Amino acid sequence: MKNLADHDSFVDGVPHATFAQMRRDVPVHWTPDHGGDRGFWSLTRYADIMAAQKDPGTFSSAQGIRIEDQSREEYLARRTFQETDPPEHTATRRIVNPAFAKPVMAGFEQLIRDLARDIVDEALAHAEFDGVEHIAKRLPMLMLGRILGVPDADLDWLVERGDALIGNTDPDFTTTVIDKVNTDAYAMMPFRSPAGVELYDYAQQILDGSRAVDDAGILARVLQAEGGAIHGQDFKNFFCLLVAAGNDTTRYSIAMALWLLTQQKDLLGQLQSGAVWDTCADEFIRVASPTLHFRRTATRDVEMHGQTIREGDKVLMWFVSGSRDETVFDDPNTAHLDRSPNRHVAFGQGGPHVCLGMWLAKLELKVVLQELASRISGLEATSAPTWTRSNFICGVKSLTLRPKLK
Question: Which CATH number applies to 7-405?
Fold first, then answer.
């Protein structure tokens, strides 16, 4: 079994064989202390992950959602509503949920289609192109600007900083690799990253009015929300969360879809048949599961599968494993675009922390694939994909593609 605490265990993609072995033999698995951080428990079976998701009273988010240990001061400085439990978490979600509701996201479909059409046309103008740079990265980036209400001119800069935050373990994204250099100087910054300093400065300019944002965007809405506007440090951390999470996870889901189209040759025909558009996005996202885990902290002693999780222990819910649990999903390592029902846990479903951007991510993936499938008769990968070095967010980082046009 590979060491799940080691980011290098993921440089060739998710170690699915390790997770399959853990589901079978040690579904509640202990990883000892590592790199100065305390050890942690891993939950790898679907049923156990769902049970933990539904019990925030026992499995708390209020001490951090990543493996790393934090002092109380660091936690308070960096936390977003993701790192809170009900009722505090519920109160914040009431402010932000309406902006991400399914009917609201559906209203963006024509905009997404217009953007996707141009993106796909520009990519297909090349005999070969990097599918991540030319397609998977571009659509979520442009939609991020519309959702936030920030100008397109700022998006490349913002996404680069967001990559440095969430990719803080990958030297392709940052020179301040968290497990390779001393990051104590940035302990109060999101992800212990110097990019957090720059994003905080950008957010402060929005707060003090020196940088304008569109009144229709989510940033203006949360600043003006009646009875619970988000301000100060909470706004800065919320901004960093949206910049990082609002781009990367959708990017890696689209990138996985592109990779699968080159590996399972029947998938393109299924898309072109029109029969799977209502189900394909969930299946591509299930297979991708780009957010590999979230951490919880036990608030009491818990017995699971013969193991005793002690109060204060860190517990990782490995969504990427739960979404390939053989007892729930037939042939889980293969994409079946008509899979239904498809109750994967890639969005953290089943508890109070379900992903805000779920409906937007599924719509973006569906639309960009519709535009691509309508223009090609085949897609070939001319090089092996590269993968992010991370046990938190993992996905295809680069992928050279050669399309066959209709």
Answer: 1.10.630.10
